[in-house]
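Before the break, one more example. Copy the sequence into your notebook; we will annotate it together after we see the structure.
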Amino acid sequence: WFGPRLRRIEAAASPPGPAKAAFWSSLAGYTSFVAHAGGPPLNVLLLPQRLDKSVYVGTTVMFFALANYVKLIPYTIIGQFEGVNLGTSLLLAPLAPVGFALGYVFNQRVDEVLFYRIAYGALFLTGLKLLWDGRAVLGL
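Here is what the structure looks like once it is written out:
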């Protein structure tokens, strides 16, 4: 099931039009704010472009750095920067350099074809997980 589809995806690169880019990036920003789930919409926008893997990773990093910066004001207004949340952030902060280092090593060692196969597979699994969570919320 994945083989033929992935070969077609790997063969074609399609830059988005302005409307498509605005829609998917806005949806990514919104879902990032509401549920920290902005990755799937951003991947729908970026993956078909077949960017160099370093450009792809850098684009996602810059997008979410900006999105997280923009979220500071509304998160402050709704009280997300309180003791428990800040304590959790402080506890997890030492893991950020570890994640950065692992990402750097993997980005250097994984070839582009495998990188995109992993990205599409992860997007598929994330979609299944989100559908499963949505089903539970809707009581289905």
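The mean pLDDT is 87. The chain has seven helices and no strands. Try to locate both features in your own notes.
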